[in-house]
DNA sequence: ACAGAAGTTTTACGCGCGGAAACTATTGAC
DNA sequence: GTCAATAGTTTCCGCGCGTAAAACTTCTGT
């Protein structure tokens, strides 16, 4: 029966027979009015079509219900998936998430943060581009003005909290498994990783190999940017052509590199798998949405998407409730779960 | 030197020595003021840190600079890629795009449209979920209130325009190529496609086979939702187990199904490729970002991402300039480009 | 130099809502 | 039934900016 469209709260007040300040209270918090009047209001809402003007609301409210979600590269299914997860949790909590992608570009990330400032968000969840310290200041300034929680990729000391994956857990599990069931792996990575997690994974690999008393082999392939699959493929093709793999077991820094690596193996007729009749074992990290559809399916260490997104949103809500400060920087690293498939 | 932060335009007016209405004009259109005063304003902007409050601006402006971009499923790299493309073009044109994903859920799409209404966007680019007519009304109502352009997936008569891909062009090219270089294909698809494009592709396949005087074979596999790869894989496994493929050439409705199909072939030792020594040729449509990394790389008909996004944004800008109506529904279908890779 | 055009300032109002203050009505326990 | 606490009403102001009107100033072309 939503026929008459009302233009403002005043009209809705006269139409519903309830004073405007009471309506204002109701829209800010439906529980702040008596149940009987709440029922009257909600009955009126079904008869008349009225919604508060969000611009007028946000102009006057000290704290909006907006939250910003910023990811470095949305065309990467990993970020698409985690952003989806976070977005849904924010909606559940009664907030209005806005999703932004830096598309791999630092200056776009800066623009996003500046525009986000104008939205006066209650809080921001930011997965920064991993990059040199030259741009660190922009993010630092932003975090000083807006309650921000970093996720996925950490910047030491910046933001009120960091929620991420425990790269050591990822690498320890994969190296352990590969070593236990055959040979310890060499480590395949990009020479100039776009992301600090890659550096932590290499460090974890070196540490783990040291702990096992084994000699590490790091293969750093050239390439920059976000076209990881192609970089992995080209790197693998070069290594295979030169027969330069130091071991018959390869651990890739991440699944997107591994997807390219496997494509190169297929191209060159290298049989990837575990057991007799196979030339090479390949494992990786992330459990990328397509990792189960590679040929062969990829053995990998899986992110706990659910836990990371849940913790990130929970921490953000806590941060918002405690008025923008948690009293000390909170950090939480979520461990990985090993996924065994045919590639290793 | 951006030291003093000014709280509103009034303060900036006194600080810069320029009247507030003139500043207002400047921020709405920098070219609407005399070059000399424009220079004075921009000089002042470098001394003082001031940006108009976007909520106050949008409350009073009849037409905001917001544009909404709505896609059905952002975790699908196809939509991630086209959304990225569209977003960047909108920014270039001086608008503020907001990206939303329905995450495959019809009720979420409805919520998004309702929230979008509150943002009073100048225009909206909507790639609707393909679904039954029961929800058509929500979209129709929305399009009546907000200047909207549909893309990717059409709904007859809804919105001011539709920009999409020419499914017939996709299918004609792949069928032609397969037929010319070997055998005509059977058609592999989902029985209950999430998207009307799938139906058009099947129809195009039937028509093309008819035109070639050949008998068509449509293989519809069970499954619904957006996990296309798994649906394709399961369907392929069943068909291979029963040896039920009517031809040695398979044309998949889209690349995500094909990715699953290829995974199943690999699993079962079916050698996919073109020429002697291969069991099966597989081709598809879309040129999904991962199509070049499948094993073997996928022969497919590529979307012209660039043309679709460019046309969509151009049409939207035209629509906004002409005050919300183009005087008749505009439709434009972009042809495909055949990409030959090893799978067929 | 001067009329006319174009740009600028002054003044004033409005947008739709948040929120404070003072007052009135309702509630529930004694 | 009284009274205090709670909830609602009335009235008013402020938020930051768009925008209109009128007066004023500066810029054009001749």
TrEMBL record, chains A, B:
Query: Transcription regulation as a keyword?
Result: yes
Domain HTH lacI-type: where?
A: 7-61
Q: Decide whether keyword DNA-binding is in the record.
A: yes
Q: Which InterPro entries match?
A: Cro/C1-type_HTH, HTH_LacI, LacI/GalR-like_sensor, Lambda_DNA-bd_dom_sf, Peripla_BP_I
Q: Which GO terms describe its molecular function?
A: DNA-binding transcription factor activity; transcription cis-regulatory region binding
**Annotated keywords:** DNA-binding, Transcription, Transcription regulation
Record-linked CDD domains: HTH_LacI, PBP1_LacI_sugar_binding-like
What PROSITE patterns does UniProt report for this protein, alphabetically?
HTH_CROC1, HTH_LACI_2
Domain of life, per UniProt, equals Bacteria
Q: Which residues form the HTH cro/C1-type domain?
A: 9-51
Query: What PANTHER family does UniProt report for this protein, alphabetically?
Result: HTH-TYPE TRANSCRIPTIONAL REGULATOR GALS, LACI-RELATED TRANSCRIPTIONAL REPRESSOR
Q: What is this protein called?
A: LacI family DNA-binding transcriptional regulator
Q: Which organism is it from?
A: Palleronia pontilimi
